[in-house]
Write a structure and sequence with these properties.
Oligomer: heterodimer
Order of helices and strands of chain A: HEHHEEEEEH
Structural class of chain A: alpha+beta
Mean pLDDT of chain B: 89
Distance between the termini of chain A: 82 Å
Number of domains of chain B: 1
Low-confidence stretches of chain B: none
Number of strands of chain B: 5
CATH architecture of chain B: 2-Layer Sandwich
Order of helices and strands of chain B: HEHHEEEE
Number of helices of chain B: 3
Largest interface: A-B, 33 and 36 residues
Strand content of chain A: 35-45%
Shape of chain A: elongated
Largest sheet of chain B: 5 strands, antiparallel
Radius of gyration of chain A: 25 Å
Shape of chain B: rod-shaped
Structural class of chain B: alpha+beta
Helix content of chain A: 10-25%
Radius of gyration of chain B: 27 Å
CATH class of chain B: Alpha Beta
Low-confidence stretches of chain A: 96-106
């Protein structure tokens, strides 16, 4: 037997009222901070071609990550300072829970990437979203045989 | 004498009901990763003099070792994450702050210390709820 449109709307309204009461739907205003941001003034002090590894470390502090890309050394600083409202829906199904979340906040860290050559001199300094400015090719750590 | 009208539901029951329904759930939490770093120990590391063995004996095992050709870099990190949250009915407020003390030490191929980079910010992590 088909439910009439009116009955269907009443059921939907009932679910809309009951789900929040059960804690299945909630709105969360969230704020997240990660690590200390670097200032543009500090980054401007590092000039490619003249700044060294020592300069990078003394001006910007310890990076979040250090990587090897070929013969280059990559230093990565990152931070996050976001605030957003999100609605979370969680529907119990048996013993499990299906959870769907829509978030407005950006997921990637803002940051800076310093690329140094084999002589430990700064070759390139990028700033922006880390997901966009990180060098693409990453080399896994490996053993080096003695010559 | 006129009869006093009795409310359908006593006021105290309404208050209890409102308290139960609207009682905000809230929590704060603090979690850490690894041990705190001693700034005095870090300042004792001298590039050109300190060796990898001495760094290891002073600061213990690093959290990460990165190979940079024939050179290496070690990471030490102490991370603090503080969270605060309050829930009122279907609206929640949640704040999270993660800060860390971090030290990178760089060694040449002879395992001599060449560079030290340090940042100390773990004590700046705070419990904070976003303002409406």
């Amino acid at each position: 037997m088909r439910l009439s449109l009116g009955r269907w709307c009443v059921n939907l309204l009932g679910a809309a009222l009951v789900l929040p009461l059960c804690g299945c739907i909630s709105g969360v205003l969230a704020e997240e901070s990660r690590h200390q941001p670097l200032t543009d003034q500090a980054l401007d002090r590092l000039v490619p071609g003249s700044a060294t590894l020592e300069d990078c470390l003394s001006v910007l502090g310890a990076p979040l990550q250090v990587e090897e890309h070929g013969e280059q050394t990559v230093l990565i600083w990152g931070w996050r300072d976001v605030r957003g409202f999100r609605v979370a829906v969680s529907v119990p199904i048996g013993n499990n829970s299906a959870r769907f979340t829509w978030a407005e906040e950006a997921k990637d860290l803002k940051g800076a990437v310093a690329i140094l050559g084999p002589d430990q001199v700064l070759v390139l300094l990028r700033r922006g979203q880390l997901g966009e400015i990180l060098p693409g090719k990453r080399r896994a750590s490996r053993l080096i045989a003695d010559d | 004498m006129p009869a006093e009208s009795q409310p359908l539901i006593p006021m105290n029951k309404i208050l209890i009901l409102l308290t139960v329904v609207l009682l905000p759930g809230c929590f704060i939490s603090r979690s850490t990763v690894d041990r705190p770093l001693d700034a005095a120990l870090v300042s004792a590391l001298v590039p050109g003099e300190t060796t990898a063995d001495e760094v290891a004996s002073l600061m213990g095992a690093p959290a990460e070792v990165v190979q940079l050709g024939r050179r290496t870099a070690w990471r030490y990190e102490y991370k603090v994450e503080k969270q605060a949250a309050a829930f009122l009915f279907v609206l929640g407020l949640r704040g999270m702050d993660t800060q860390s003390d971090r030290v990178w030490v760089f060694f040449d191929e002879e395992q001599n210390l060449t560079h030290v980079g340090s940042s100390f910010a773990s004590d700046q992590a705070s419990y904070a709820l976003p303002a409406l």
